[in-house]
Backbone:
């Protein structure tokens, strides 16, 4: 993953923010929309592209384009920094593979203890019965 190459491939678009904010919202385009086309990227290897497409499937469009928005701040520049940081965190998460789970055996001492406890409980229940007078 070439970070500098990826930054050049990002597309930013400034849009008017929605929600409360008065006249400022109507005048200033402070919301930033980041788009990143995974298949056309030259900063990623083919394996990384496949991994991203599978791991970030729910976040991608049908053309495998990642779209991120940020309208947290009133400053367009700050929103651009936030969305870029969020993009690289998402990439890092998408490229990581989870550690494989190793199957473990139940310890013999635990099995013995479980059986002993079951027998003990059975004896307690047996002692509660009415005696046989045969």
Residues:
């Amino acid at each position: 993953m070439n970070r500098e190459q990826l930054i050049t491939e990002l597309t930013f678009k400034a849009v008017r923010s929605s929600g409360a904010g008065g006249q400022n919202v109507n005048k200033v385009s402070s919301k930033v929309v980041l788009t990143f086309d995974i298949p056309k990227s030259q900063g990623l290897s083919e394996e990384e592209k496949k991994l991203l497409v599978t791991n970030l499937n729910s976040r991608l469009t049908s053309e495998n384009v990642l779209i991120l928005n940020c309208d947290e701040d009133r400053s367009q520049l700050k929103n651009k920094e936030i969305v870029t940081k969020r993009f690289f965190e998402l990439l890092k998460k998408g490229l990581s593979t989870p550690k494989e789970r190793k199957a473990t055996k139940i310890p013999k001492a635990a099995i013995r203890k479980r059986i002993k406890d079951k027998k003990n409980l059975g004896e307690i229940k047996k002692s509660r019965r009415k005696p046989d007078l045969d």
Q: What stands out?
A: Residues 18 and 25 are 7 Å apart (CA to CA).
